[in-house]
TrEMBL record:
<comment type="similarity">
    <text>Belongs to the yippee family.</text>
</comment>
<dbReference type="InterPro" id="IPR039058">
    <property type="entry name" value="Yippee_fam"/>
</dbReference>
<keyword id="KW-0479">Metal-binding</keyword>
<feature type="domain" description="Yippee">
    <location>
        <begin position="8"/>
        <end position="105"/>
    </location>
</feature>
<protein>
    <recommendedName>
        <fullName>Protein yippee-like</fullName>
    </recommendedName>
</protein>
<dbReference type="InterPro" id="IPR004910">
    <property type="entry name" value="Yippee/Mis18/Cereblon"/>
</dbReference>
<dbReference type="Pfam" id="PF03226">
    <property type="entry name" value="Yippee-Mis18"/>
</dbReference>
<dbReference type="GO" id="GO:0046872">
    <property type="term" value="F:metal ion binding"/>
</dbReference>
<keyword id="KW-0862">Zinc</keyword>
<dbReference type="InterPro" id="IPR034751">
    <property type="entry name" value="Yippee"/>
</dbReference>
Amino acid sequence: MADSVGTRLYSCFKCQNHLARHDDIVSKNFQSRSGRAFLFSHVMNIVLGPKQERQLITGLHTIVDVYCNDCGEILGWKYEKAYEESQRYKEGKFILEKYKIDMEN
């Protein structure tokens, strides 16, 4: 967290646990079942669930759910594998649902 000083941070809406830096946003133009979502290249202070196949708007993906490591709230998911070539840029990246995170600073 030392490198996050002076950087805008995103935190868990429930417990304010720091989750991601604003600089790590890849895109703000994602959609989840519950509304807008952000794609991040890196997140922190999370726990990952088991791998599962999920049919999303953009096709079939292998994903793992992302939970806050402090309060256990489900926050989004991580793309493990994309089956369509055009979606492979998502692999290894994280979706955090906008309504589940708060921006600090």
